[in-house]
Amino acid sequence: MSLLLRDGDWVTAGALADTLGVTPRSIRSYVTALNERVPTGVAVESGPHGYRAGADAGAAMRSVPTVTGTPRDRLHTLVRALLDAPDGIDVFATADALFVSPATLDADLARVRALLGGTQLTLERSASTARLRGTEAAQRRLLSTLAHDEMEAGSFDLAALRRTLGTESVGAAAFGPFKADLVAQLGELGYFVNEIGIADVLMHIAIAIDRVSQDRPLAATEQPASEAQTEVAGMLAELVARDLDVVLGAGDLQHLATLVLTRVVAPGAGDAGRRDSTRAALDPAVEHAVRETVERAAAEFLVDIAHEDFVLRLALHVQNLRLRAREQAWSRNPLTRSLKSTYPMIFEVAVFIASELAERLEIPLMDDEIAYIAMHVGGRLERSRRGDQLLTATIVCPGYYELHELLRSSVDRSLGQAIEVVGVETRVDPDWDTIGTDLVLTTIDPVASGERFVRIQPFLTDADIERVQSAAGRIRRARRLARLRTELERYFDASAFVHGLDASGAPEAVIRRLGDLLITQGVVDEAYVERALQREELSSTAFTDALAVPHAIGMTATRTAIAIGIADPSIPWGDRRVQVVALVAFSESDREAFQTVFEQFVEVFNERESAQRIVRRATDFSGFLDELVAVIDG
């Protein structure tokens, strides 16, 4: 359902099956199950072109099945039972309650053990009793992990949270007003609230209330509270008592106040008049590390991000991030997947920054935290590259009073963010061949023809605006892909092409296999392959539902080359499944080409139909290259 909602168009059963790593028959079963959730509506439409989200798709997503017997349901129920029973659970009684055999429950307990990795919790088994051992803070982190697993794309979903905590936990009627009051109070205290981050705070508050109601409070720490922590803790105590009728202890209030303060940003960080006060709140070591890392990233990727405002905002974010790391309270980001697939270059810059900061400040960084850094990078680049995206245009409008001036004014007002008018022809017989702008907006029929000529009315209409925007979009895409085709034809080689990747051991085995091909060509060495594996550990390079682009940080290849692997069916890669793996090795001399190749290559495979066409027909190297070029040429 998430895939269908994200695509918004028809998707074949085969394409869905490839993405999920199942058979088309399973897809049909899933569609039936989803439609059963809304008996009077349509969750998924079926047709000759496949499936697409129906009018009641949202209701199906929010609906809880009446029969909860899936492995994940059992796992969550089992973990919740273990968390609620300090003395442990009886394995046989729990198996009976879940309507499964003791052997099935033993298998589920093994999955619980796998889930506990890195949580500082252990699962003990003595005869028929199983119990969790670990601190209350560690148990709450496990609860937050389960809650995030229930919540689609990391967004705050109270219904999903109640499935994790139990239906007797805090309800929407109380929690809705509480959130509004919390945001209002933080605003009155002078904080700008990050709505993405505050969702995590709400989840932790709900978990705290649930645990306190079971007489499982957090112990207070000996670390003295700051003035800001004391202020926020007092506000939280009052709000929770008033809106949710729960009294939190000192340990819970201190913990929640820390979470709030690491997810809100004091206003004025980008105001030149307040830079000194912002810097005063920063740890000099953090600011220094961020400044040097940003300068290195700007030089490595040739991007315009080394600005004072950007450094200060990012340093403030990283300082909060370091505090979250100490609490092991990572902030989820619902935009992670879309940022990675839509803005791969921006995400790659963020990965570079995260890698440097992780080493300098000893902060382990997850994908969601890297996505927050990507949002900072994207915001900075958006400011600096808006002008670069403008297409030039000439208006052809035969002179009649001030008609051409009125038309130019209308174009500037309606299309000024997409095109820049650099000339106006008022002759009825202009020399069309001498007009060299990207677009020609003409009120008369042009003698010449082509994509760049757009017929418009003397008085600009909504239809005219749409035609111009559409033409501008086609020209931009054609230019991007033309540059990509020119670059790619230099980088591919038949000896670095593999059809039929093995799913076992992916992605490490695939990276090593493709890396060996480039080593044989003398393009890279073993060290490069090892660095590509290290880069993969930082953040999965599966940028779309079809394509992974593993690579090492640093452009150290003797020449730029790409090794291609085709998998049919798809293979697991991080939290996705992919069918095309492109191991990319860039040389220092091709630094400027990196952005073009990286972004546009991902763009091609971000279109599901194009990806499927290439995979289905690329049984050998020549077929792959032919199909790739055909897709690029449209």
Automatic annotation (TrEMBL):
Residues 281-387 form the PRD domain. GO terms for biological process: regulation of DNA-templated transcription. Residues 490-634 form the PTS EIIA type-2 domain. It comes from the Bacteria. InterPro entries: BglG_antiterminators, PRD, PRD_sf, PTrfase/Anion_transptr, PTS_EIIA_type-2_dom, WH-like_DNA-bd_sf. Pfam families: PRD, PTS_EIIA_2. Keywords: Repeat. PROSITE patterns: PRD_2 (PS51372), PTS_EIIA_TYPE_2 (PS51094). This is Lichenan operon transcriptional antiterminator. It comes from Microbacterium thalassium.
